[in-house]
Design goal:
Layout lengths: L7 E2 L1 H18 L5 E5 L5 E5 L1 E5 L3 E7 L13 E9 L9 E2 L2 E5 L2 E2 L1 E2 L15 H15 L7 E7 L3 H5 L4 H4 L1 E2 L1 E2 L7 E2 L5 H16 L4 E5 L2 H11 L33 E3 L4 H11 L3 E6 L1 H8 L14 H9 L8 H6 L3 H7 L4 H18 L4 E7 L5 E5 L4
Parallel strand pairs: 8-11, 9-13, 15-16, 15-17, 17-18
Antiparallel strand pairs: 1-14, 2-3, 4-5, 5-6, 6-11, 7-8, 10-12, 18-19
Helix pairs in contact: 1-2, 5-7, 8-12
């Protein structure tokens, strides 16, 4: 019997627990080993507290984030909280919530681009975690709040290094990690982290004035699009794909050059990302990937992960066999084990590429009929094999 996957807790829940622990120690002047907080859904959860320190006017501790069985980059990170009491409850940089001031410390990022859940210039501590921290600290001092205003500082000692493994910098969160979470719970192997990041990336792009978005399935295809769309001669680019013409219509001036915010990593969540672009008002869209991923899209898969969609080479074999211009490739397709093998065995045949990319675009247009969509095919070395349809 397969063992069920274990859930974990968000950085927001850990920050709230650490803040409650520090507040309790500041009030009672004694170390605290365990705290209990209420998650947004009403569940009571207990957290172990570590690194307890009590000073004359402050107390601090940390909670070690347990992400359960989710492969979260912040799993094992120390989420620190320091609580101090200040004579004035007046607002300070970092924001004030119900008389309790919450700010970030080392390892917590600041927001530098519009479109996120908190304004530019604020610490990257999202609204639900702020509310959780506020309620946890306020509950310690209720029903008789202190005359002095509690100030809570959240920090993550190695947060700046961990943030380099995330998309924070692209979203405009600089200097560290974000304090996130809407439920307090991390579900194992959940797609929500991806889709939340896709939504945030599109929101940032739109807030920065971008109406053209490039969605990429992976880092290689994204790097290829970034080079392609940033060329100084991008209106008439040289494309290395065999048979792809050089034409000023290949890249509409409205699409180039594109700012960094226009590039959104969607991973395998093609259907979600394309619909999100349509919902949020994107006008022009390029969907980029390598041949295996583009073929999956052409076959009608909204989710292109190997575990959730079977790459049916028989479908491609049928297309090739029924095409007078491509039937010569039937043996290559029927004998191949992978999509990449087909691409290489066909010597990157431009008609094969154009057919697969065309069918992929047809499927994408069905997902978002109002969008102007093009397909970008990156080679396995990062070269451009196709970008179209090509205007004539």
């Amino acid at each position: 019997m397969k063992k069920p996957l274990r859930h974990g807790y968000t950085t927001g829940a850990c920050a709230a627990a650490a803040a409650k622990g520090a507040a309790l120690m500041l009030k009672c002047r004694t170390p605290v080993a365990v705290v209990e907080i209420i998650l947004p859904g009403g569940e009571n959860v207990r957290f172990q507290v570590h690194g307890q320190k009590i000073g004359p006017d402050r107390a601090s501790c940390h909670v070690i984030k347990d992400a359960g069985d989710d492969p979260d980059v912040t799993n094992g990170a120390e989420i620190h909280a320091t609580v101090t009491l200040h004579p004035s409850p007046s607002p300070v940089p970092g924001g004030e919530w119900g008389g309790i001031v919450i700010r970030g410390g080392p390892g917590v990022g600041r927001v530098t681009k519009p479109g996120l859940a908190v304004p530019v210039g604020e610490w990257a501590i999202n609204p639900v975690p702020r509310k959780m921290i506020t309620e946890a600290v306020a509950g310690v001092f209720a029903p008789h709040p202190p005359a002095l205003a509690p100030h809570v500082t959240i920090s993550i000692p190695n947060g700046e290094e961990l943030a380099k493994k995330t998309l924070n910098a692209r979203l405009g969160i600089i200097g560290g990690l974000s304090i996130l979470g809407t439920t307090g719970i991390v579900k194992p192997i959940s797609a929500q982290a991806w889709t939340d990041t896709i939504d945030a990336s599109i929101d940032v792009a739109m807030a920065c004035g971008c109406r053209s978005i490039v969605l990429s399935t992976g880092r290689t295809s994204e790097t290829a699009t970034q080079r392609f769309f940033s060329r100084s001669d991008a209106k008439s680019p040289r494309v290395s794909g065999k048979g792809i013409p050089e034409t000023s219509d290949l890249l509409p001036s409205a699409l180039c050059p594109l700012p960094a915010e226009s590039f959104v990593m969607m991973g395998d969540h093609v259907g979600y990302a394309v619909r999100a672009c349509a919902r949020k008002g994107v006008r022009r869209l390029a969907v980029a990937g390598q041949f295996a991923k583009i073929l999956k899209i052409a076959c009608g898969h909204e989710q292109t992960h190997a575990s959730s969609s079977k790459l049916d080479l028989q479908i491609l074999a049928g297309w090739v066999e029924n095409s007078p211009r491509l039937s010569r490739l039937t043996s290559h397709v029927s004998l191949a084990n992978t999509a990449r093998e087909i691409l290489e065995a066909s010597a990157r045949d431009p008609e094969l590429i154009a057919m697969v990319c065309g069918k992929a675009r047809e499927f994408l247009q069905r997902l978002a009929p109002g969008l102007h969509i093009k397909v970008f095919l990156a080679g396995y070395g990062g070269e451009v094999l196709y970008y179209g349809p090509i205007s004539r």
